[in-house]
Each structure stands twice: as structure tokens, then as C-alpha cells.
């Protein structure tokens, strides 16, 4: 089963795992039972379909006839009815999953890794945000819950050309800084970012 | 009426007795004999006629319709009334014909004379027909016949119809004559104002309110005089002001306009109806001021540049009469003051050379205050202290006090220089002879303090400087220190000066403590050849940092150190004493030289020098080991001692005691500040300020959120700014960072489902 991209996170989510890269037997039994998967192949199909739907933003698959079904798609169909809400659940789950138990934040490197797999595929603007963070090593040390939530909000509501970004809104300072930075990038005639519009 | 048309002409003033008596006798005789049959009988006849009930068939005339079937008295009244009208018409026709040939002043004189005669007569007639007025006229009016008037009013109405209107209809002959007289007066001519007043008053009297003849009504006055008068005024001043400005300076014009407005006010006073004041003055203001306001605004700058106080006063007074007049002046004034302030500082910086490091705080403060003083005087003198100009002055001062050539981009330079200046004033050697002078100088500092945006920076510098003054005992006087603190307290509140006041408390407690410790030690020990004084200073109130390194307490002072340590712990158990060696000082007596000197040293210098009680030569390494002072600091300490020739440094890293030390003074001050320490001071202060600000912003947000529970982002930021701007101008990104931090610390949270609303987390 390929374990690149967001699939491990989705799998952990489906198993309701409490810790990263670890699934207890109890979680496994409960998770696989509800998905009704009995083979690695079936898990692989289920994960890839969920990734396409939620992370890549592809249209939902048409379920084949009952008999051929590799796994129980009732959960999948529930997500397909409102992929945005489902993705938000996955996204918020990820924060809790990654965050060390005693801490309130996750460190910036981990945040960037997760955003790369979760947000960048559907929101190209996120790639630029990560580029910005990468240019300022050490400036942003950690991601708190608010920044985590607002990052998704930012991706979902702000246009790629940032024309509807309110500078005097309540965005976290990292995003204010990003927008200001992007303004100077365009100003210098870099032009590269214009391609996204 | 017979008397007014006396058959005899009035004798001239030079007449002899015979002529005079002949004239007087006629009058006396008239009063003695004919009054009874004349005047009284007239009234009686009118009364009798009106009250007789029998019909006088001969009279069939009536005024209006619907009079048939009235009682006799009513019809009788109607006849009489009508005859009166006929009489007035005939009488006035004669008068009118006489005016045909009259013009201008002659016309006015004739009109005024006839008016006065006519109204006097009409008054008498009115009394003769009192009965008619009271009964017949009243009933007619009660029944709604508006065209019937009491006899006096009737006379006026007839005057208006038969004399006034016909004359006016000939190119407004009457009003025109008045207007020409007024214009003549405006041109400097002397006119008969009494005449004008009489005629104008007649216009007012002719006004009639149909529903109530007794009520004053200005319709005739307004239509026939006021309107044309205002028009003529507008034309006159439009023409005059334009041609005047074409050949005169604005200064002269201001004078002229002021005079003209005054003249017009007087004109109303002298011979016009008071109701004309408002339209007349507002028209004059329009033509003389508003129409030329652009020109005045443009000339304002040069009046400011050349300090033309009187002209400025005039321009202010004139433009304040129109609502939009002053705002452009206020703006220009603000800009002017700002430029003056910036120029003053630029000049100073230019003189001091390019470096602002060497700028003399006193010169800087003097330059700022000079600009403020000059312009503040202008506001009081020329703009009568008007609030808008005061605001402009304050705005401009705030600008150049905080940002100028000396400050560059730094927000802290100005508060620093001003705090330094205050420090120099409050030091012992301030060169100000009198206490009063010092008080004046401190008040001047407060003028600038008011304009400082970052009052917290000033506070931090001031606190640091005060602590130095107190520790080193160089404060000029306790009264002046207290006075300055009370001024700051008055300006910024208790919290602002709390620390400063605590510092004074510590000082006086320390004095007592030193005394009581000394007397205790004198009782218990007899080896007191060291005199010792201590300052115990509260950590939270003093901007002092303990040394960041070890320090070996020299054995010579160790007993004293231990004794005090014990004594203090006994008095206040649980308190921790941190020894600030870096701020302490000592006096050492020399015994190794012929002349005994007293060396005034820092603790580090003392620690070094005491090593030479046992050695004559020591290496740097040995000294480091003996004192624990870090090498780089120690070399600076040693450098000063070498420079003072106490020690000799001939070989690298080797220091010998100079056995031939000589000084002109017995007391030798070696305790000079070390350069690194001086520089560190400013940056330390700024670091402290930055840290403090973070907490102030966070604390303010928490306080606001605790009170409001939930709040949107924008109002929250505004509230924070308004609460903090008393102390410094918080930057929005700093506030947002504080919000980030508080979100992270979970003092506040984003309200679920909203993007810009925060809630307080209890």
C-alpha cells in the first residue's frame, strides 16, 4: 500500500488513532470492522478514494454494484455528500494527532509537512505561503490551534490574487506578514505569482 | 388743524417786541377762546352724529356690501368714515403734486416734513373720532371687514396709497434718494442722518398687518428699502473691494474690510431698523470676506513668515466671521509650525556635525521650546487662543517633537534627549542659581513631555537617570525631585510615577538603616575602622541589574559584609539581599606614599587595589583569579587605574603599583564610567521598553476582554490603542502579535464559526 501524501493521515483518521504512526489493536479492530476491509488491497483502495475526494478535490466515484464492493462505502458516501465538512474534520483531527500531548503547539517543520500534503494539492496559494515561511527560517517557530484553523479558513475563503484579503481583519500575524510579503514580491516585478490568477 | 395753518407767518428770530407779541397774542387768544368751540366741539359733533338713531336719508353711500338693515349708528359711521377717506385723498393729492418737481435730498426733506405734519394731524383726528373707532370700526373689523381701519391707521393707509406708492412708482424716487445719500456717506461725504432716519422710519410705520393694525409689520420697509439697500450694498462693496485689492496690499485690505464692517454696524445703529443688521452684515461678510477668502488664505503664510501680528489678528477676526473661514488657516498654521520645528532641529544637527550622538540635550530642548513658545504666543495673541488653532499647534508640536532630524527613524531619541536634559537640570552642578529658575526649567520640560508620544521611553530613561542621581548622591535637591515627580504624576497618573516615588522611600529607609546598623555595630564591635553606608533598594522599583559574574569579596571588607548580612536577615527574615557591586563605590586611604591620599573608587577598582596591600606586582591572570572579575571588564578597570598612574603597565598583562604616585588633589576620583557601560545603557533601556510594551499590550487586551467578554477584532484594536496611547503609540502588528500570544496561552479564543470575534476565556 503506497504510504506517500496524505494517505497515512487519512488512515489514522479512519482508525481514530490517538498517536501518529501507531494504531492500537483496539483501534485497528474497530476501524477495519466499520470499513469492512479485510485485505491490504481493500484498505489501499479505500484510502486512495478518500484522498482523491477530500484532498485532491476530485468528484466522488460511482459506487459499483453491491457485490463487487471492496469495502463498505457508507462512510465514504457520507463524506461525498459534503466533502468540505469532511475535510475540515480530517484537518482538525490532524492537529490533535500531531500535537505532542503536553504541548499546545506543533513545531513549524511538522506544520509545513502536514500543510504540504493536506492543503497544497487543493489550494495552490498554500504553496506560496509555505514558500514564504521557508524564506524566513526561525521567524515562525510553532503553530497553535488558532493559526492551524485560520490557515484552512484562509485557503478556503481568500482568492489566489488576495484581492479579498482584509488587511485589518483578524488574521494571525503570519498571514498578515505573508500578504505584505507577497505585495512586495509583485511590486518588484517578479511576476511569477501572477501565473496563479 | 386750523392752528397749523396759521395766517401769520412766523416772525424771524430778530423780530422786535411788537412783531413777536402780535404773533404770540394770536396764539394765546386762540387757546383762551376758541379751544372750547374748536377742538371739543369737533369731538362732540362726531359723537352726536354717531349716536343719533334717526336715519339720514340723504346718505345712501356705503362701503362694501351687506350693510343694509343695520342700525342707524352703523350707517352713520359708514358715512363719516367715507367722508374722511375722501378728505385724505384730496389732501394727499395736493402733497403729491408738489413732489413732482422735487429730487433727492429736497424730495426727502419735503417728504419728511410733510410726514411729520401729517402723522401729528392724523393723531388728533384719530382722537376726534375715538367713538367711531371704538364702535363702528371695531364692529366692522369684528365682522371680518379687513379694509376698515381705525382712523389713524386709515390715514397711514391713505398716505401709502396716495402719496408713497405713486412717488415710489417713479423709478423708486424715495428709496433711490436714500440709497444715493448712503452711498454718498460711504464715499466719505457728510449727510443728514436724521433726515434719512425720519424717512426710513416712515417706511416702517407704513407697514401694516391686516389682521392686527397695532402689530408692527416691516413689509413696506423690506420691499421698498431693505431689499434695494442690500443689493446696492453688495454692488458697492464688490466693486470697491476688487478695485481696492487691485492696487493695495492684503494688509491694507484687512484694515479696510474691518473698518467697513464696523461702519455698517454703526449704520444700522444710527438710522436703520435693527432687523436689517443680520442681512446687511451677512451680505457684507460675503462680499468683503468670503469672496476674497482664497486670497486671504494664500497671503496667510507670508504674514506668518514676517510675524505680522496685527494683520494676523485682523485676518483671524475677519475669517472667523464666516463658518468655513478658519479651517484652511488652521491647516496652514499647523504645517508652518511643523516646518519651523523641523528646521530648528535640522539647523542644530547641522551645527553639531552630522552625528546626533553628540547632540547637546539642552540645545535640543531649547530649540524645540523656542518654536513652541513663539507659535504658542501667536495663537494667544493673534488667534485669541481659539481651540482649533491650539489643536493645530499641539498636532504640529507632537509631530516635530517626536520626529525630526535628530531622531531619524528612532521613536526613542526624543524622549531620551528630553529625559537627559531633565537629568542635567536636576543634578547638583546644573548652573541654575535659583530654585525658582530650576522650577521654570522643569515646567518647560513638561511642555515638551506633553507632546512625547512614547511616554514610557521617557519614563524608563528618567527612572534610570534618577536612580543614578540617587545612588551617586548628585541630585540637586529633594524638593525639586519631588516637584518634578508630582508634575509627571499630574500628567500621567499615579501608576506612572509609582516606581519613582518608591525609589525615594527606599532612599530614606536606607539612611535610617545605615544609622541603626552603625550604632548597633559600635555597641558590639571595637574594630570599626571602616565606615559603611548601605542602600537597600527594592528590586521591582529600581532599574538596576546585578553583575552577571562572580566577585570575590576582598577580606578587608568581608567582616562588614557578613555583619550587615546577618543584621539585615535578623531585621527582615526571608528577604534576599543581592549585592550590586557594579554600582557600589569606596574610598581608600593610601599609606604607602609620603602624602596620604584618598582614592575614590568603584568596588572593582577597590578589589584590584586591595590586592596591592600584599603585592607590588601582579599579572592580569593573578588579578582575575583574585577578584573573579571577567578579563575583558577587568582590563578596562585596570586601564583607568593605569591612566590615573596609580598602577604602571610596562609589560604586557603585568601591573605594578606606582610608588611615585602624585596628585594635586588629596581626594583623587578614579571612579570614571567605563565606556562599554555607557553605551549599553541606551540599548538596555530600549530593550526594557520593548519588553514592557509587550506586557502592557497583553495586559490591556486581557483587561478589555475580561470586561467585555466578547469583542470583534477591529474594535478591540481601537480600544487597545485608545487605552495605551497615553503612554506610547502601540503599533497594530504588535497588538496582533499580542492577540496571537493570548490565543496561544488560551486567555482568549476565537468564537466558533466567526473569523474576527474573540471571547474571553475565564
UniProtKB/TrEMBL annotation, chain A:
Residues 1-183 form the DCUN1 domain. One of its GO terms (molecular function) is ubiquitin-like protein binding. Coiled coil: none annotated. It comes from the Eukaryota. Pfam families: Cullin_binding. InterPro entries: DCN-prot (IPR014764), DCN1-like_PONY (IPR042460), PONY_dom (IPR005176). One of its GO terms (biological process) is protein neddylation. One of its GO terms (cellular component) is ubiquitin ligase complex. Neddylation of cullins play an essential role in the regulation of SCF-type complexes activity. This is Defective in cullin neddylation protein. It comes from Agrocybe chaxingu.
UniProtKB/TrEMBL annotation, chain B:
It comes from Agrocybe chaxingu. GO terms for molecular function: ubiquitin protein ligase binding. Residues 413-642 form the Cullin family profile domain. SMART domains: CULLIN (SM00182), Cullin_Nedd8 (SM00884). Signal peptide: none annotated. It comes from the Eukaryota. GO terms for biological process: SCF-dependent proteasomal ubiquitin-dependent protein catabolic process. This is Cullin-1.
